[in-house]
Amino acid sequence: VQITVLAGGTGGARFVRGLLRQLDRSAPGAVVTVIGNTGDDAWLFGLRVCPDLDTVMYTLGGGINEDQGWGRAEETFTVKAELAAYDAQPQWFGLGDRDLATHILRTQLLHAGATLSEVTAALCARWQPGVTLLPMSDDFVETHVLVERDGGQVALHFQEWWVRHRAALPAKGFASVGAEAAHPAPGVLEAIKEADVVLLPPSNPVVSIGSVLSVPGIRDALADTSSPVVGLSPIVGGAPLRGMADACLSAIGVETSAAAVGAWYGAELLDGWLVDERDAGTTVPGVAVRAVPLIMSSVDATAEMAAAALRLAEETRHRG
Ligand code: FO1
Question: Going by CA atoms, what residue is nearest to atom 2 of ligand 1?
């Protein structure tokens, strides 16, 4: 059984952790490929930082700072403090000492001519995440956020909007800069086409899943595959469980509801849509909707969500 998951950061990583727990029980031979969002990536102090790839790698490899949902456990910030002593900028992004080793090695390998896919495989050799982690593209694609400032509109890198401004500047839109010239990374389209099931976890639909879908060819591969595609709503009872999906959805004119996000993905992409029990009764035209508990309160609870998604995939598979 081959399962492919499109993932962003914390929400996607935690879902995959539950999926692996479920597969250990129900389908031990299953293999999972994660197509990770790179739209959050940024150059900081000359280093290439890939937050969503690292969050998946650290979460599944056992190195994540669990409370934060990003960065390393047992982290220290000596280098950050030294940089601050020089008044070096930016100071609003918290790069820990252990995390810096990842960015230093990644940057060294990129400068030596390795692709981001090759770098990611090299980093995962240490962490053994238990999945094949592929960047959505080896080309640089960056999510920029259009915000209003001083009467005009300016584009901020996603990290500046999300971390420096805490997403408090109303977003007027998002751009995946470089997407139109980007190609899916090696293996990405195959992972979708050869999958028995494709899952869209409760990552941010706009800046995480939406960013992956912005790479030419990926959306079409999902629309064309005869295998079931099942998504899990990141919105429960009209609010996101974490992160800033509501700020992103309102920016693109989508209501913050399980139904609206399901309809935004649409029947072209989705065969099934899992919503939380609080949103029971949700309908999405052309999509099979089921209501189950969608709170990732533990790995076992997340495993149950994954089991529900796999069941729904089988129900829709024979629907054709
Ligand atoms: N998020 C924050 O809110 N503050 C930070 O200082 C911060 C640092 C950081 C460093 C490395 C990394 O991989 C992620 C980091 N994040 C931080 C989270 C990051 O903004 C998000 O993980 C994604 O970009 C959104 O999913």
Answer: 163
